[in-house]
Design goal:
Radius of gyration: 21 Å
CATH superfamily of the largest domain: START domain
Largest sheet: 8 strands, antiparallel
Shape: globular
Number of domains: 2
Number of helices: 9
Mean pLDDT: 93
Structural class: alpha+beta
Low-confidence stretches: none
Helix content: 10-25%
Strand order of the largest sheet: 1-2-8-7-6-5-4-3
Number of strands: 16
CATH architecture of the largest domain: 2-Layer Sandwich
CATH topology of the largest domain: Alpha-D-Glucose-1,6-Bisphosphate, Chain A, domain 4
């Protein structure tokens, strides 16, 4: 158990948790920056978390749900107020309703996470500030302290698991539910470099090609919300051609972009693609959350070898960044 102290101060409306870990601060920081790692310990042992959004930048948000042993769900959100790499994270934290919107019937909290180096590794200090004594008592009675102890008791195993999140791993897809997939890959480059690589047509035409043997003759990028993009690929031997169109729905350079996506010539509803870029040790974690209109379409697209093609493109992107 990494927790070394838990203290509450009803007068100050705070709950403070201190934990020590035998790892460098950078490793501990990444566990909070990477949604794949965070969801392995954010919920209590019997209520694992699934993050459907995690934009760890000032103004960014996180959305998640925890699933109980009987299938019941508890939903929550963060809004990032401050992010000082390797030092501090501040968030507004609250509950969500069944539609994923903030639940006004439940109190929200201010949470600050502090990271510091120690002789034995690193120290994590969490300070939760409640809006009122009534809110503090309500959440404590709901089992908040026991839940935090259970959740943080799982961090050691995550920190010890170095290979699952190493920077040299290939692109991987994680099924979050029947319609959502999260595709992840660490790119050896800065957030600014990776953002530019997704928005500079000349650069995109050099790396966003999938397997060898293809070119990208059409690359019309959307740079403002409401604009539309069009991408087309062609086999070098002239045997095949396909493409996608869509609209830019949200943009928060250089960390988040949300678009729709439809294959040219294919009828039906589009997918929703949410791109998030977060700096981690070794480079930039690229997370692409894809929401499909149905499970059947999700499975069909994954069955085409989508992640294999994405890995070929990302590997090519890394070569471009090294040569820059």
């Amino acid at each position: 158990m990494p927790i070394t102290n838990i203290s509450s101060d009803p007068a100050a409306l705070t709950l403070t948790v201190v934990a020590d870990y035998p790892v460098p601060v950078a490793r501990l920081w990444d566990a909070y920056a990477d949604p794949r790692q965070l969801e392995r310990f954010w919920g209590p042992e019997q209520w694992p978390a699934t993050f459907t959004r995690h934009d760890m930048a000032v103004g960014g948000e996180s959305h998640y749900y925890m699933t109980g042993p009987d299938g019941a769900m508890s939903r929550g959100w963060f809004r990032f107020l401050a992010v000082e790499p390797l030092r501090k994270i501040e968030v507004e934290d609250g509950f969500s309703d069944e539609m994923g919107q903030p639940n006004p019937a439940m109190p929200s909290m201010h949470m600050s996470f502090h990271f510091e180096s120690t002789a034995g590794g690193s120290r994590f200090t969490s300070v939760t500030r409640f809006p009122s004594l009534e809110a503090m008592e309500q959440l404590v009675q709901m089992g908040m302290m026991e839940g935090m102890k259970s959740a943080m008791g799982q961090i050691d195993a995550v920190l010890a698991d170095l290979r699952s999140y190493a920077a040299d791993l290939a692109t991987a897809a994680q099924l979050l539910n029947d319609t959502q997939v999260r595709v992840s890959r660490v790119i050896r480059g800065s957030v600014e470099q990776v953002w530019r690589a997704h928005h500079d047509p000349a650069l995109m035409k050099r790396w966003l090609l999938g397997p060898d043997g293809w070119s990208m003759p059409v690359c019309e990028v959307a740079t403002k919300v409401g604009e539309h993009y069009r991408y087309e690929w062609a086999a070098n031997d002239g045997s095949q051609r396909f493409g996608f169109v869509g609209e830019l729905l949200e943009a928060s350079p250089p960390t988040r972009a949300v678009t729709t996506e439809s294959m040219i010539g294919m009828e039906g509803p589009s997918t929703r693609n949410e791109l998030s870029l977060v700096p981690v040790e070794g480079g930039t974690l690229v997370s692409l959350l894809i929401t499909y209109p149905s499970k059947e379409l999700r499975d069909m697209i994954l069955g085409t070898g989508m992640t294999t093609g994405m890995e070929a493109s990302y590997a090519r992107l890394e070569r471009e960044l090294r040569a820059a």
